[in-house]
Amino acid sequence: MMKKTGIICAMQKEYDLLVREFPEGSGMRCVLSGVGKVNAAIAAERLAMEFNPDCMLSIGCAGTFVETVGEGETVIASRCAYHDVWCGEGNEPGRISGLPLYFESDAGLLEKARAGLPDALVGLLCTGDQFYVGREEDERQKKMFPDALAVDMEGAAVAQVAYLHGIPFLAVKVISDNHCDGRQKERYEGFWNDMAEKSFSSIRKILQGL
C-alpha cells in the first residue's frame, strides 16, 4: 500500500462504508465531499494541501447507459472527462481551456486495481452536475462520449485537482443504476436500500491491493 492514500466520496453512506474498513491510522484518509463537481474539487484541494497524499482516489457510485453493464458491477476509470463543459467557439466540447480533454488515471494504480479485481470493467468515466432521468439527456452524452462506461458527478473534478497537483489519480465506481429502461431514479434508490454494502466489497478489494 502506498504510504498515504487520499479518498474522496460524495455521500454519507459511501463515507460510512469506507471509514469502517479504513479508519484513521490505516494510511488512508477518507473525506466526505458532498455531491457535485464544486464540492468534490474543494474536498480534493483541501486533501492535497492538508494531507499531501501519495495518490488520490474518487470512490463511490455511478450510473451507466451501456446496456451490458449491470447494477452492482464495478467500473475502474481508465480516464475521466466532463460531459457538461463547453468553453465556446474554438474549444472542443468537454475540454476546459488550457486543460486536457481527458484526465488519465495513473498507470500503476490502474494496474494494481485491475489485479485486485480482475472482473471489474475498465473505461471512461464522464462527470457532470446532472442526474439523468430522460433519454434525451442520455443521447446527448452518448453522442459526446460514445465510449463512456459510467457517469457520475464528482470523478473528473477530483481528477482535475490531482492533475494540477501532480498527484497520481484513480476513480473506482460501483454502478447504482442503468439508464436503458428509463427507471434510473427507482434503481438508484433501490441500490442504497439493497445493494450498496454488498457492492462496496469490490472497492474494498481494490483498496486493499493498492
Can you summarize this structure?
This protein has helices at 12-21, 37-51, 107-116, 135-144, 155-165, 184-199, 201-209; strands spanning 5-9, 28-32, 55-64, 74-82, 103-104, 121-127, 148-152, 169-178.
Tell me, briefly, the overall form: globular
- Extract low-pLDDT stretches: none
Structural class: alpha/beta
The proportion of strand residues reads 25-35%
The N- to C-terminal Cα distance equals: 5 Å
Would you give an account of this structure?
- With 210 residues, the chain is α/β, with parallel strands linked by helices.
- 39% of the residues lie in helices and 25% in strands.
- The protein contains 7 helices and 8 strands, in the order βαβαβββαβαβαβαα.
- It has helices at 12-21, 37-51, 107-116, 135-144, 155-165, 184-199, 201-209; strands spanning 5-9, 28-32, 55-64, 74-82, 103-104, 121-127, 148-152, 169-178.
- Strands 1, 2, 3, 4, 5, 6, 7 and 8 form an 8-stranded mixed β-sheet that branches.
- Helix 2 (37-51) packs parallel to helix 5 (155-165) and helix 3 packs across helix 7 (201-209).
- It is globular and about 45 Å long.
- The termini are close together.
- The mean pLDDT is 87.
